[in-house]
Amino acid sequence: MPHDELLAGALAAAAAGSAVLRRYFGGADLDVRTKAPHDFVTRADRESEEATVAEIRRRFPDHRIVGEEGGERPGGAGELCWILDPLDGTTNFLQGLPVFAISVACVAGERSLVGVVGEPMAGKVFHATRGGGAWCDGGPLRVSARTELAGSFLATGYPFKAYGALDHYLGALRDALLVARAVRRCGAAALDLAYTASGVYDGFFEFRLAPWDLAAGALLIEEAGGVVTDLEGGNDFLFRGNVVAGAPAVQAALLSLVRRHADDALLDRLVPRAV
Question: Which DSSP string corresponds to 145-170?
């Protein structure tokens, strides 16, 4: 299937979900439920996913869909699968902090073909197609030109769903703080990846993310000239969930720093992945 047709579907799906999020942001009728300690789902998450899925189903009725809230929805026998997060940054959303996103990607195997990250309250839409570049609101994206980790501007996320890895993460964070100009934790991994693709952040690292956190944003970085790897330096980050990304030289140095404290095998032992 042509990538431009997939991209049109991803953009429409993200727009449908974003409209739901804007409607609910700042409201009180959110029907908040707890999935796990400090991990919440709201009416906005659920209805955003419903709107996103409906748009994908309308255009691609035979495709498989995997969403954070609704799980897997079977499709036909083809290899294409949509992976989506209807609201990345639910805690920010609940607190009235307008730093959250919607993430929609179409993947074949473990390779994202198209990806869209929408920032509803800012009105930004980041998108990429494999081999077709990365863009935001009509302008091309390019990762940072920085060539060293020293003095870099980094982003990260705390492993609040993987406390078994916390000491190792804190060791990496400490070393990053000692060398970077600043390290930011904004609470929405998809946005962190999008802003890394934009050159705002020089690099990003986090442990134990889910495929819907990564599928769209990782493609943005790759198509913007950056590098995304797992902790072994390979490309098994989508389903392992451990990621180091950024401008090529910064990513290489950041990966070396993080590997002083953790690797994929260690994290698999400390925080086994869900089957």
Answer: ----STT-EEEE---TT-GGGHHHHH
